[in-house]
Amino acid sequence: DAGITQSPRHKVTETGTPVTLRCHQTENHRYMYWYRQDPGHGLRLIHYSYGVKDTDKGEVSDGYSVSRSKTEDFLLTLESATSSQTSVYFCAIMHGSSDTQYFGPGTRLTVL
Amino acid sequence: DQQVKQNSPSLSVQEGRISILNCDYTNSMFDYFLWYKKYPAEGPTFLISISSIKDKNEDGRFTVFLNKSAKHLSLHIVPSQPGDSAVYFCAASEGSGTYKYIFGTGTRLKVLA
Hints:
The structure holds 2 protein chains of 2 kinds. Chain A is mainly β. Chain A is 0% helix and 60% strand. Chain A is built from no helices and 11 strands. In chain A, the strands form 2 sheets. In chain A, strands 2, 4, 5, 6, 9, 10 and 11 form a 7-stranded mixed β-sheet that branches. In chain A, strands 1-3-8-7 form a 4-stranded antiparallel β-sheet, with no helix packed on it. Chain B has strands at 4-5, 10-14, 19-25, 32-38, 45-51, 56-59, 62-67, 72-77, 86-93, 102-103, 107-112. The A-B interface holds A 4, 31, 35, 40-45, 48, 50, 58, 90, 92, 94, 99-106 and B 6, 32, 34, 36, 41-46, 49, 89, 91, 93, 95-96, 99-106.
């Protein structure tokens, strides 16, 4: 257990509404990540952070923004949700001593 | 272009037999590889990793083999148990300092009792 929580765990929203997902860690890890998991695509990186206020894009960043104002929290925002963003979203942290990522329990998002 | 490929979406194996999951990659800069296991409604959990300086790494019933010339890695589970039934993802990284992984699409393993 890497001390990662995600909230909410489930969310149903309507097209065009803003949505923010939260990832919280308790172990002061520098690197944090947001992935989405979809059938046939595996896990795809959306955005990642390498420190407070330091973020960068992943391979599927369009339509998403992130913020990290303190070490323990990494927020993923969908400014205007679309049905194509229906997915399961996972947060991960990088355990620096082992270069291994550990994942949170996930958030299932449905956009109607 | 998929840099990490798992060409078998699913695999069924009898309990007690060997499970072999395969993964191919195209980027010759990848030098660190990992396997994750995922149960339904849970996050992926780290299973085993291997650096490109090795060709084999073992952890209990799990062994990962790396063939750099073929750009191929495999995960062997011996003996397979019903609790091993899950989706397995391989991941690759360009190594220390990169801190980003590329994941394959996953293989669903079903171990039959």
